[in-house]
Write a structure and sequence with these properties.
The protein folds into 2 domains: 67 residues, Chemotaxis receptor methyltransferase CheR, N-terminal domain (Chemotaxis Receptor Methyltransferase Cher, domain 1); 193 residues, Rossmann fold (3-Layer(aba) Sandwich), CATH 3.40.50.150. 41% of the residues lie in helices and 18% in strands. The protein is of the alpha/beta class. It is built from 11 helices and 10 strands. The protein binds S-adenosylmethionine.
Length: 287
């Protein structure tokens, strides 16, 4: 068979880009043609297809959740992450947000639910679990908690479940946490069973209404460095769904370089020293 055509035409780019957008909300601007071309070309070869248009047709009528969509998302998502990324967020969580939420829930069930939405290979979800485990000896005595890590990429989630990391991923882990929550074997850093027990990993597409309806009653959501891949319209939809997923009084954290400025969203920005978080307010207090 002839070798795969190396080039993705503008038309093929637009067809694929629009289809991917419809399925996932991920938006590839015009300058990203080359990115899609080099990341999808290996898949054409594996399938024995001759052009990107053939690949578009191959994808066209596949239902959400089809294996080919999974393979595609694995190829075009960027799972860059590490433990204790933007540590200010975790300090604000521990010192400001958790005390506020536990005070609010003190007469109810003493349970906290946190969600790392777009967790990539799991470092953020495990960091949250470590913070909560530390607090369970102090301010969270008598409380139970659960952390959910979710992503669209099955490969990233598989790695998350394994819980084994390179030195690079753990480079910002404070000594105390390193000693208590990791086991190092030949340069691989394994997350301890205590931490693993606190976290469940699930595949969730943030752009799917059906999948998002299952995600409810969270006190805190971390959705950091994920919204950057969406355009304004799909960002607003994802934010609306995340809002629905939170309990009243709950908080959303986004990446430190991201902003909701100019985005139509029901969240109220709350400024803490060194970071802004986004709150789902009581309807009575919301302006
Ligand atoms: C750069 S990583 C961020 C990881 C982590 N939250 C952090 O800040 O370190 C972005 C992740 O978002 C995921 N993602 C992108 N679009 C998504 C979607 N529609 N649904 C769920 N996850 C998505 C990607 O697969 C990727 O793993």
């Amino acid at each position: 068979m002839e070798d795969i055509r190396a080039f993705m035409s503008q038309r093929e780019f637009q067809l694929l880009r629009d289809l991917i957008y419809k399925e996932s909300g991920l938006y590839f601007a015009d300058g990203k043609r080359y990115f899609l071309e080099i990341h999808l070309r290996p898949r054409l070869k594996e399938l024995g297809l001759e052009s990107f248009e053939d690949y578009y047709r191959y994808l066209l009528n596949r239902p959400p959740g089809d294996k080919e969509w999974m393979r595609l998302f694995d190829k075009i998502t960027i799972p860059e992450t590490f433990f204790f990324r933007d540590p200010r967020h975790f300090e604000v969580l521990k010192d400001e947000v958790i005390p506020e939420i536990t005070a609010r829930k003190k007469y109810g069930i003493k349970r906290l639910s946190l969600w790392s939405a777009g967790c990539a290979t799991g470092e953020e979800a495990y960091t949250l679990a470590m913070i909560l485990l530390e607090e369970s000896q102090v301010s969270l005595k008598g409380w139970s908690f659960k952390v959910i890590g979710s992503d669209i990429s099955m490969t990233a989630l598989q790695k998350a479940k394994e819980g084994a990391y390179s030195e690079y991923s753990v480079r910002y882990v404070p000594d105390l946490y390193m000693k208590k929550y990791f086991i190092e074997v030949k340069g691989i850093y394994y997350v301890s069973n205590d931490v693993r027990r606190c976290v469940d990993f699930l595949r969730v597409n943030l752009s799917s209404d059906e999948e998002m309806r299952r995600m409810r009653y969270f006190d805190v959501i971390f959705c950091r460095n994920v919204l950057i891949y969406f355009d304004k319209k799909s960002k607003e939809k994802v934010l609306e769904r995340l809002y629905e997923s939170l309990n009243t009084g709950g908080y959303l954290f986004i990446g430190s370089t991201e902003t909701l400025f100019g985005i139509d969203t029901p969240f109220k920005g709350v400024r803490f020293p060194g970071c802004t978080a986004y709150k789902k307010e009581d309807r009575d207090y919301a302006s």
